Amino acid sequence: MDLGLSGRVALVTAASRGLGLASAKALAADGASLLICARGPLRLDEAAPTSSFPSGHAGAAVALYGGLAVVAGLAAAPAVVRLLSTMIAVLLPLAVGLSRMYRGMHHLTDVLGGLALGGIWLCVVTLVIVAATRQRGASDNPEPVLAR
Questions:
Q1: Sign of CA dihedral 42, 45, 51, 55
Q2: Is there a single domain that holds both residue 19 and residue 67?
């Protein structure tokens, strides 16, 4: 196939395998000079034989960033800080889940399971913290901490 690219320079990304590799071979056969951007022969993370459901990374992200948002909410932080911490608590776990799927480490169901498990854990811990805070606050001040 003559594409008229002889003597031209072509940039091919994702050329380590699949469509990118096939495109690079076709362009080289046509006489084009190539600039190739590709991963090495090994994948970044090979799935361990004990790959598991649910995604621990996604669950830990929900628990960590959600916990930080709860602490910011209970600490009488300014509204801007509470808003930013809530946005981070939602967006970062989603980004972690998407990155795990992109890298081929988990399927969608693994990530959804991890997000759900992290959310359940966050709810349980939040209830315990709020109950302890109210109990401690009841002895010092009759008004509950979250009644703002």
A1: negative
A2: no
